[in-house]
Amino acid sequence: MKAITRFCDRMVQRYLPDAFLFAILLTIIVFILGVLFTDSSPVEMVSYWGGGFWDLLAFAMQMSLIVVTGYILANTPIVKRLLSKLSTIADTPSQAILLVTFVSSAACLINYGFGLVVGALFAIHVAKRVPTVDYRVLMASAYSGFLLWHGGLSASIPLLIATPGHFLEDTIGTIPVSDTLFSSFNLFIVAVLLFTLPFLNRFLMKARDPLHNTNATLWRPEEINHSIDNSEEPLGELTPAERLENSKVLSLLIGVFGLAFVVFFFIENGFDLNINIVNFIMLFLGILFHRTPRRFLNSVTSAVKNAGGIIVQFPFYAGIMGMMVTSGLSEQMSIAFVNISNEFTFPLFAFISAGIVNFFVPSGGGQWAVQAPIMIPASLELGVDTAKTAMAVAWGDAWTNMIQPFWALPLLAIAGLKVRDIMGFCVLILLYSFFPIAIGLLFF
């Protein structure tokens, strides 16, 4: 196992390109597959690509704000003290890996966007506390928690099919989360991953190539975090404009205004911790905790530097999704697995097919829109529980996120790493996690 770990890390370090180039190569691969295996011509594939190129603009903005608002909030004095205090639980590299994995996993079970940011930011504080920890394995551990998101409270597929009016309601009705998120098979998968991933990541740290040890002192996490000292008060006579910029009253007023809406939102909607409300909470807490508009804006200036990769790369993935969906390539992939399934194996093959489709359509809701019209009728015909079918697709979506840079971009931006720095370890996480997920879907 140690040899496999070192081999995967070396191969990824040597051959995996930057995340942007990965998106370009994926674009070319999907274009070729569409021309070869569908009725689409090269001109039509280019049209599908360009037509879908801007379909993720709203989502790209949401993920950019996740990075920016998370960074802003993390650089407030109160949050830095809190994360630093929590990081004191770890005194050794092994403890650091265990702690970061567990905290990230628990946070992603609450909300995937929240978990991505918290995992990365907390890992940086732990790295400062334990500078001898391998920084790459630590960040891979933080990202591994994202594997659990589609079995948690922000899971898009089970929440969608539990909502009246979803597009398959006439076929399957509404399926309560008691049959999906709180089913025995899902609770088994979540529990096994939650309590074994920390130890797997600890093993990966010990199994890494000692010749390529990259402890946190080499990465200088204090510079990666770009912490801003906002404690100094402005000197000299202030102009009226400068007084406004340094007004604690204005920050307090708008901060309280924002948090009042948060309270109203939860009263009206219950505990709906969607990506927009997460961003909203982090933004207005950042305004409050920085205390003045000037300190807040200083943090914003540094924060936006981390969002560049998301802004540029997400449109390319939208173009890839456009080619996959419009050409029918994703449909063909799903049908191929349905054709070799029976009542017992169908959940497993639904999971595997979803994992493959997710590599090209890295969006839980978008993937369900593509696969559900194929998987649900097939499950009804074979007599397979539709709730388990939906969760099989959900876990497939989460599973291959471990080797899909799309979702790693926010964490990598915060950490100051490239995708090749963590992906070798994520390959091993992907291989390991297949077994508890498959067992849960087949035998529970």
Written account of the structure:
This protein is mainly α and 444 residues long. The chain has helices spanning 2-15, 19-37, 42-52, 57-74, 77-87, 93-110, 112-129, 135-144, 156-161, 169-172, 184-207, 216-219, 221-224, 240-245, 248-269, 275-290, 293-303, 308-327, 329-338, 346-360, 364-382, 386-399, 405-415, 419-443. Helix 15 (248-269) runs antiparallel to helix 16 (275-290) and helix 19 runs parallel beside helix 21 (364-382). The longest helix is centred in the C-terminal third of the chain and has 25 residues, at 419-443. The radius of gyration is 23 Å and the shape is globular. Residues 221-228 have low confidence and may be disordered.
Record keyword descriptors for this entry:
444 residues, mainly alpha, 0% strand
Shape: globular
Coarse structural class = mainly alpha
How far the N terminus sits from the C terminus, by CA atoms, comes to 29 Å
Compute the CA-based radius of gyration: 23 Å
Could you state the order of secondary-structure elements as H and E?
HHHHHHHHHHHHHHHHHHHHHHHH
Largest sheet: none
- Poorly predicted spans: 221-228
What proportion of the residues form beta strands (DSSP E)? Answer: under 5%
Give the strand tally: 0
- The share of residues in helices is over 70%
**Tally the helices: what do you get?**
24
The overall pLDDT, averaged over residues, is 89
InterPro entries: SCFA_transpt_AtoE
Protein name: Short-chain fatty acids transporter
Organism: Virgibacillus kapii
Keywords: Membrane, Transmembrane, Transmembrane helix
